[in-house]
Structures are given as C-alpha cells and as structure tokens.
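Readers of this paper often ask what the protein records in our data store actually look like. An entry from our holdings is shown next, in its original layout:
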Amino acid sequence: MTESSQIRIRRARPADSERIAAFVNRGRPHKPVTPSEVLQRLGAVGFLLAEMEGDIVGLLGWQVENLVVRVTDFLVFPARLSLSVGRALLTEMEEAARELMCEAAILILPANAPPEVLQFWEAFGYQRRDIAGLPRAWREAAREANPLQDQVVLKQLRADRVLQPI
C-alpha cells in the first residue's frame, strides 16, 4: 500500500464492525475493542472509514448537535498516512457538517497532548480555543464532551452563525 494509492472515504455500516475492531486493535493495541463494542458505538456515533486497496487505514467518529459537529474518535494507521488520510477524513466530515448547517467542528484533546498532535490539527485549520469564550451552543457541546476541560480544538465551518431556527 503506497501513499499514492487512492483513498476512498465512506460511512461505516454495522456489517463493518469486525473489520473496524480489527483495525482499531492494530492501530491501538493497548486498548483493544470487540466487534460488539464497535456496534454499540455505531449506535451513538457516526463513523467515516478511509480505505486503501480494500484495507481500512483510518476512521473518524463524529456527532452533530445544535449545529456543532464533535469529533469523537480519530485513528489513522499506519502513521505515515496521517496527513493524507487525515485530510480525506476531515474533508468528508466537514462537507457533511456544512450540509447540516454546522457552525463549528470541535474536538477535545488532553491538556497534556504533545505539541505534534496540536500541530497536526492546526495543519487542517483547527485552533486551540478557551471554552469560556465560545458562543453558547459551542461551549455547551465542548462541556458535554468533557466538563473538566478548559480548552478545545475548534474549526469554524460557517462565517455566519445561525441565530434563528432553520
């Protein structure tokens, strides 16, 4: 599998649960998951899968609420594909979020996240922001994801905020 191989992004289906579990267990062997845990997670989170030559090489879990998309899961393996696969996954998620009129995409990083993790997200236009200074709906989405966190990594998806029901 070469970096120049075609990356195909698609939404995960329940039938993918065994392949997803195997992929997660290869990429994150210290925290194994079972196919039934993947199925349960699919009930709460949408997954986008990145495939190359028929193999899963990335996944992105996301939820949308109150015009805010929250990235809940992100894994690319092997790591050498992080930029290309990460870009493909994020582009697909952001396009779908814009269709849903989402104003922002957020993710919660641990306070002690290494600088290279923050640099990875910054390469795609995400920035670390104080939760207290965010608009109310964004702040609520961030607090729901992790009530103990003071900062979030965020990308504004719409220049104009939705101030009345659509």
